[in-house]
Amino acid sequence: MVSRLFLVLAFVCWAVPGHAADLTAHDFDFTSIDGDPLPLSAFAGKAVLVVNTASRCGFTRQYGDLQTVWETYRDRGLVVLGVPSNNFGNQEPGTEAEIKRFCEVNFDVDFPMTEKVAVKGPEAHPFYRWAADELGATAAPGWNFHKYLVGPDGKLADWFPSPIAPTSTAVTKAIEGQLDRVGEAGRS
């Protein structure tokens, strides 16, 4: 009886739409730093660079690089999404209002940002749990300013660890590859 029940449950989980294997980034929602809904489905058809950020980190200067990438590529279909997190070294202790002000005053940030969330462990935001499941544990954030590149179809296209700057050749080539896909979709 138990084995039959297990088989039925396994089939139901496999056959139900929205099963983990069918998920894309577009199935996840954040809340903006201003408290508004921020569904990733709003970025369908665009490339999205999702970056967990922190204001008191050795990599904090990457906010400036993220702003540069945003200004360079947004008109071609790139969204930079900053995701403040206090998971690493308690380097993002501020409130959403404090984080937003810090980013605007120090780096002229105007790309979208989310409320502060966990990006690792059992409390991690569902997007981050999904990304780690999709790409494996080595692709999970190990520190602040870890980057995921999401393609226009919502699939994870690449990831980059904290030390790799958003303006590096590796990141910009990957972005441009996804933006070519955005352009192709627009021409179809």
Structure commentary:
- This protein has 188 residues and is an alpha+beta fold.
- It has a single domain (38-187), classed as Glutaredoxin.
- It is built from 5 helices and 6 strands.
- The strands form 2 sheets. It has a 4-stranded mixed β-sheet with strand order 4-3-5-6, sandwiched between helices. Strands 1-2 form a two-stranded antiparallel sheet.
- The longest helix is centred in the C-terminal third of the chain and has 19 residues, at 169-187.
- It is globular, with a radius of gyration of 18 Å.
- It starts with a helix and ends with a helix.
How would you summarize what this structure contains?
The protein has 188 residues and is of the alpha+beta class.
Q: How many domains in all?
A: 1
Q: What do we call the CATH homologous superfamily?
A: Glutaredoxin
Query: Which class of secondary structure composition applies to the elements?
Result: alpha+beta
SSE succession:
HEEEHEHHEEH
Number of helices: 5
CATH topology: Glutaredoxin
Q: How are the strands ordered across the major sheet?
A: 4-3-5-6
- What is the top-level CATH class? Alpha Beta
Task: Give the tags.
disordered N terminus, 5 helices, alpha+beta, globular, Glutaredoxin, two-stranded antiparallel sheet, 188 residues, 4-stranded mixed β-sheet
